[in-house]
Fold Alpha N-terminal protein methyltransferase 1.
Amino acid sequence: MADPPADTSAQPDASINHAAALAYWSSNPPTVNSMLGGHPQLSRIDLQSSANFLAKLRRSSRTHPPGKPLARAVDCGAGIGRVTLGFLAKVVEVVDVVEPVEKFTRELVAGEGRGLKAVGKIGEVFNVGLEEWVPADDTYDLVWNQWCLGHLTDAQLVEYFRRCRGALVKGGWIVVKENMSTDLEERDVFDEVDNSVTRTDGKFRTLFKQCGLKIVATEVQRGFPKELYPVRVYALQPDG
């Protein structure tokens, strides 16, 4: 006898509504304060930690050692390009951008990033949600995902990671930097305000395994206020 259908209503990611999330973010101003939920002072700490994390990855890499910029990266869920401008463009020749809110990418290419766009430092701008983005194979040394994956369901996230895995050049990395759920029963938590899910470390590890990715480095972000969710960063590569 077949098992009854699973009750997905109890799963936090079943509540994700892409249209509602897009409406929420579209209602926000294109500022660093807005991107960081009213904590703009965290940007400098965050960007420096990310730069340090990538530097450590490169020191242990045979294919992407230190000494010259990476060829191409993509900033996924880029918002107004805070990570692109403050970090990636300094260590990568060309940075593509994936962001569904067009007013955010307009701010990026017409504002502080105007000069970088003019000289080709900022490459393709994809105004689509991550669930719809299909990258070309063998394109990126680095696929950077930060504070955006909570808008995808578990199933969408697995498919997204599989596409990103195919988009990596040999020795490249998918980096995930996200809030971690602190639920006492180790459950994911749905946020009704921005229509996203905050996942547990265990959930992320399960999803990585499902789509054929292995963790090659991971650490917890330091220097953030204790009242905020902890933030963990993972570097992933194809498993085998």
